[in-house]
Amino acid sequence: MLESKFLKDNIENIQKLMSLPPLRNFETKSLRQLLKMSKIREYAHGELIIREGDIDPWLYFLLSGKVRVRKQGVDLFILDNIGDIFGEMRLLDGLDRSASVYAEGKTVCLAVQTSATDRLEVEEEKANFLVTLYRMFSEFVTMRLRLTNEELVRVKKELDHLS
Fold this sequence. Notes:
This protein is α+β, with helices and mostly antiparallel strands. The protein has one domain: Jelly Rolls (Sandwich), CATH 2.60.120.10. It has helices spanning 11-18, 28-36, 88-93, 123-162, and strands at residues 2-3, 38-43, 48-50, 58-71, 74-79, 85-86, 100-113. The longest helix has 40 residues, at 123-162. It is globular and about 60 Å long.
């Protein structure tokens, strides 16, 4: 893995972040705060990004490439849309990582160290930033849950048809 230092809140970085679908609703101030806690990480094909069962404070946004999500040795899905979020479940529920994530081909991610809110100057800034971040999580998790429900219905219909 290649990793940058923590990013600076320059206008170029903010413009790049504003182009990511999940971050379009963030205000410029919140994006600056996000950058203070972020690094760019580049992974080679097959490289482990998240290990199932680990505990760490990182949240990821896919900037390029693809990632494969695997649980208990079973491939679940591939994320390949720029701006896709992964690693959010651990941050929401505080439990161990629920799945492993691997790079598929060369993959570049924005890695956000969510425990680094001490880099934000004022408590109100921290609170506003976290509210915005959790709103984004809830929208993303809701979308993923809807897709999972559709897949579950499809599989149940297949099983009923086979019975």
